[in-house]
Amino acid sequence: MSRAFDNQTGGHGGDLVRAARQWNPAGGELLDFSSNVNPLGPPSGLIEYLSETLTEIVNYPSPQARELREDLAFFLDVPLRQLLLGNGANELIHLLILWHRPRRVLVPAPAFSEYERAAVLAGSLVERYPLRPGEHIDPVFLESRLEQGDWLVICNPSNPTGMLHQRCDLLKLLAAAEKRDASVMIDESFIPLSGRPEESLRDRQNAKLWVVISLTKLWALPGLRLGCLIGPESEVEKLTRWGDPWRVNILAQAAGTYCLEKKDYLAETLDLIEKERNFLSIKFKETGCFRVFNSAANFLLVQGTDPAFNVAAFQDYLARRGVLIRRADNFYGLDQSYFRVAVLKRANNLRLIRETEHYLRSSQYCKVAAEKNSKTGTGDSAGGDRT
Is the C-alpha dihedral spanning 38, 40, 46, 47 positive or negative? Predict the structure, then answer.
């Protein structure tokens, strides 16, 4: 699959219909490591509950998801008047940038593509700032780049690297932005899945700060779409008053209300993610062919260290065997040695590792490795960084 496949979707994972058409025409099921939602799946009983709710689709949903908004404000411990719900975090990112149409938007590189897509659609200049895998955010550097009217975007934890930025550094940036009359949008979509709520800035009341959270990822609802935006009270009031009153459909509202009542679900989720993220990281490293970047999220960024490794060939091999990963070479600044995998349950993670080991032993890979190593003179088919 070439980079051209990114044109319609921004290169996101989770496009199972397209993947099945390309790699699995017989209709076999694909195990999806390309989409990083909660590995537990939706809370138990949600599907049955929504089935009973289907009869309500003849009615309009509650405007501004009123009841869910109230419950969510309590759950997040944020003022109700600073909270807005939407059809996924992505829709809210676009809404915010299209509404304000800043002259310039500073986005991390590599990063989630929607920040740049929204900025381009809004007619804003886009400046990428480097945030390489394994690197922490540099408040001093970013402060030097900020100008009046700019919008600075930060993803915390970062996508695709999983790096968690410290609250103290983000507060320094927020103070600098306020001084320069610039705005900061922090995408905290993976904070709930990191187990590190103390690094969140959602409790800060600041006229220049916006925080976006994906509830789609938290509750594994990518097909329903649900997210929230936390921002200055006066600005949220305008969006509430003048924006689309039915942005959240009736089933998504019902799902959100149901999920908030499942008190043990988040604790079970965090326990699973920590254990399985460590398991996957260790297993990839044990092959001697991959570098795994530290992650605080429910996914891992992995780099093939052998010169023979090519992510397109790896993705193709796995997909034909029913396993779908997320190529990362369409993230700005990453090449064809990078890929991202979601953290799933143990049986699924074991299958990914087994198929990866099969690939590394395959005649297809060994032939390329031998050719590469003969040219470089290494003589080692599994060369590269063993860390």
Answer: positive
This prediction's pTM: 0.90
Q: Rounded to 5 degrees, what are φ and ψ at 253? A: -65, -45
Residues in the chain: 387
- Kindly give, in sequence order, each residue whose CB lies less than 8 Å from that of residue 258, ignoring residues fewer than 6 positions away: 43, 45, 46, 49, 50
Give the domain ranges of the chain.
13-41+266-376, 46-260
Q: Is the pLDDT of residue 11 over 80?
A: no
Average pLDDT, the chain: 91
CATH topology of domain 46-260: Aspartate Aminotransferase; domain 2 (3.40.640)
Two structure tokens written together for 280:
């996957």
In whole angstroms, what is the distance from residue 141 CA to residue 92 CA? 28
Pairing mode, if any, of strands 104-109 and 299-304?
Answer: unpaired
pLDDT over 70 percentage in the chain = 91
Contact 89, 187 (CB under 8 A): yes
**373 pLDDT more than 70:** no
Q: Quote the CA–CA distance of 159 and 36 in Å, as a whole number.
A: 10
Give the amino acid at 206. Answer: N
Facing residues of 195 across strands?
none
Strand partners, 85: 228
Encode pLDDT of 188-239 as tens digits.
999 999 999 999 999 999 999 999 999 999 999 999 999 999 999 999 999 9
Rounded CA separation 32/222 (Å): 13
Nearby residues of 288 by Cβ (< 8 Å), 6 or more positions away: 382, 386
CA 137/CA 162 separation, integer angstroms: 12
Pick the CATH number of 13-41+266-376 from 2.40.50.140, 3.40.50.11540, 3.40.50.300, 3.90.1150.10: 3.90.1150.10
